[in-house]
Amino acid sequence: MGTADHYHAHLDIIVDGRQVAVPADLGIDPATGAMSAVHTHTPDGIVHVEADTVGETFTLGQLFTEWNVRLTTSQLGSLSGEPLKVYVDGEVQTGDPAFLNLADEQQITVVYGDQQVDIPDSHDFSGI
Q1: Rounded Cα gap, residues 55 and 1, in angstroms
Q2: For 122, phi and psi rounded to 5 degrees?
Q3: Into how many domains does the chain fold?
Q4: Residue 35's CATH number
Q5: Domain ranges, residue 51
Q6: Fewer beta carbons within 10 Å, N or C terminal of the chain?
Q7: Cβ contacts of residue 29 below 8 Å, gap of 6+?
Q8: Spatial separation of the C-alpha atoms in residues 42 and 79, rounded to whole Å
Q9: Cα–Cα distance between 17 and 116 in angstroms, integer?
Q10: CA pair distance 51, 87, nearest whole angstrom
Q11: Is-contact 55 62, C-beta < 8 A?
Q12: What is the three-class DSSP state of 13?
């Protein structure tokens, strides 16, 4: 964890039409409190990026690695065989979602399954 650059993104995960919580304390060592540059504090989907250097690149895959959940173009954890789509600010993304660069005040939505869902195009970051 660094202090040169600090920003937040928001992550929603929807599986078969249902919201899945992003756990608190991803990327935080429970024994020492040491934090990875990409981490969570609460189970509200807020992803914190705290870097040693301004302009470092961090990816959605790094958060999923901290979570120990596989994220590929066709797999979310142990789930595969259904459509997997990733949206940023309401726009569908192409390519490997693990390589999606995190950015300040970005709304990321990962959707697994065929159900029709409302895709948020923003998040209110004012309370952070």
Answers
A1: 14
A2: -165, 170
A3: 1
A4: 2.170.130
A5: 5-112
A6: C
A7: 35
A8: 24
A9: 7
A10: 24
A11: no
A12: strand
